[in-house]
Amino acid sequence: MPTALPHERARPLAKGSVYPAKDLCSQCGLCDSRWVAYVKQSCAFLNQRFEAMEVAAHGRSRHLEQEDELYFGVQQRMLSGRLRQPIDGAQWTGIVSRIGVLALERGLVDAVLCVGQSSDDRFTPVPLLARTPEQVLAARVNKPTLSPNLEVLEQLPGSGIRRLLAIGVGCQIQALRAVQATLPLDELYVLGLPCVDNVSRAGLQTFLESASRSPATVVHYEFMQDFRIHFRHSDGSSETLPFFALDTPKLKDVFAPSCLSCFDYTNAGADLVVGYMGAAFGNQWLTVRNARGQQLLELVEPELETAEVTSGGDRRAAVQQGIKAYDKALKLPLWLAQLVGFFVQRFGPKGLEYGRFSIDSHFTRNALWLQRHHPEKAEAQIPAFAKKIISRYRLPAE
Ligand code: FAD
Ligand code: SF4
Question: What is the pLDDT of residue 252?
């Protein structure tokens, strides 16, 4: 009789019990499924394995000497675009949801792993295996909180699902890729979202209360390429705030420790990544990493207005300044924040250079955070590509 595999013998831990990554756990959901059996090798916060993941998923690891790959990962193609008919209520124009719908309608997959919302709170994530286009559409828009996406792996055995499209952020996809070979699937497509600065539901409340004039009515927000946070309220009104006006002293500790120790901003393991930060203001940004990613893009490409990616400005002085401001937890008065915002928006980095600005700022901040809070983990947790990027800046003494 064949020996059972570890996940066939394991049972998920009771929800809320100990997660091996402890304070660094991003609640990715793996430990809430029987695939907890592989947690030591698979958890993004216990075992960084970027190179192995890239080789397995894309056939090679990124070329560190090529700037676009150093920053944005293995790629065949980058482009920007928007749906000609945007999906109402989506985060941007809804390219991600549309790909999910088309993947089901064209019979490419049996289900789409996506994130719905709880019936009493639109920001509380509820991961699901959507079997219909309606379920995928109902899961549109970000739930900007840690989401246990991989808990739904528990539902796969016996479900009849053999081909899956998984939508997710970097830490979820790292763990998913690590257990991929043991899943009861014939095909797995991975549609990734870039992600930084995620928060617990309580952390989100602190953020909204410090940043919005009406935290209770916010239905959607995004940090956009014009260096402003755009809030949309339930009455249809909108509000913007320059990044530089954020209450840094109050918000310094609001981000989840997992996100302060993460270097997978651009979702290295996904077949196709759909974000916004490398595109001109208002457009989405797509990175095709491999042939499967191209297959996903081809589903939706005829419905897109596309454009080449562009790049402008020079981020480096702004990143170096930002390191100092963050370290000192400076809060600017609103008039000064508006003024700085005006100049940065006018003359600051744009397109791919804006993407690099954001990556540099987050990687340097996270390296500093790790060195201060988990010095014993810093060497292993920071991947080679991030070390190369961080070495371009002067970090304050520890
Ligand atoms: P939609 O069609 O509205 O679909 C959104 C999809 O997101 C849905 O399928 C849903 O299943 C999924 N989803 C919702 N909440 C979560 C969650 N918590 N975890 C995993 N999946 C979820 N892009 C950038 O370029 N830079 C960033 O810094 C950045 N940060 C992000 C942080 C978070 C927490 C998330 C969820 C996304 C982030 N993105 C970022 C991606 C970006 O905001 C859009 O989600 C993306 O461009 C797709 O837009 P859309 O209109 O096509 O999505
Ligand atoms: Fe488990 Fe995921 Fe938390 Fe790691 S991040 S401990 S795999 S739930």
Answer: 75
pLDDT band per the 50, 70, 90 thresholds, residue 6: confident
Can you tell me the distance from the alpha carbon of 28 to that of 288, in angstroms, rounded to the nearest whole number?
24
Enumerate the domain spans of the chain: 6-198+258-310
Beta bridge pairs of residue 55: none
List % helix, strand, coil for the chain (3-state, nearest 5). Answer: 45, 20, 40
Find the range with the poorest average confidence among 171-175, 246-250, 313-317: 246-250
pLDDT, residue 330, reads 67
- Cα 113 to averaged position of ligand 1 atoms, centre (Å): 13
Report residue 324's pLDDT band, with 50, 70 and 90 as the boundaries: confident
Ligand 2, pocket residues at CB < 6 Å: 19-21, 25-28, 30-31, 39, 43, 45, 171, 175
The Cα–Cα gap between 231 and 239 comes to 5
Strands (E), 257-314: 272-275, 284-288, 304-307, 311-312
313 C-alpha to ligand 2 centroid (Å): 39
